[in-house]
Amino acid sequence: MLRPLTDEASRAELLKLYEALVLELIAPWVASIIGCDRMLFQAIPCVRVHRPGEFSIGPHIDAQYQLPDGSLNAYLPLTSIDDTNSLYLESAPGREDFHPLRLAYGQFCTFYGAFCTHFAVENLSERTRVSLDFRVVPGGCYAAHIDEQPPDFRVGGYYSEAVRAQGAAGDSGQAEGAFCVSARGRPYWRHGFPHTAN
């Protein structure tokens, strides 16, 4: 099912919609809270399929995988989720008040996955969960120069980068203040299956 994502032409429409979600909704929202004009985002979202009777991923924090401290997780189910077909997380680092996300189709959640433990349990429901998850990092939380970025998490590799458009709309094709992609990442094994073989 996910193999078409390894082909650039086949994944183009998904990436177009994904980038629109990040540029038009996620980046402006995060920027309004943090106050930044630069945002990094995972170049390819992770696509998760959690079928009945399957176990997905054990308890972890993303810092275990060297993701940066300022990393914010975005979780977008493409199906309704509410119990064992969901993601479980704690409300703050170390709180251990684990609860499943209860989201309907079209809703998404953000959380501090760098240090909030999250995991999935065995799916005991009769419903398959299909979801996208990805990380965004406010620019001030990440080195601007590629030689200062960890090799596995560089702009142009794991991350794409967006900046606020400056000047008149005609200069960049974007309205002033809108986010636009300044550097695009590429599929990478850290993006998970099916890119693990790349």
TrEMBL record:
<protein>
    <recommendedName>
        <fullName>Fe2OG dioxygenase domain-containing protein</fullName>
    </recommendedName>
</protein>
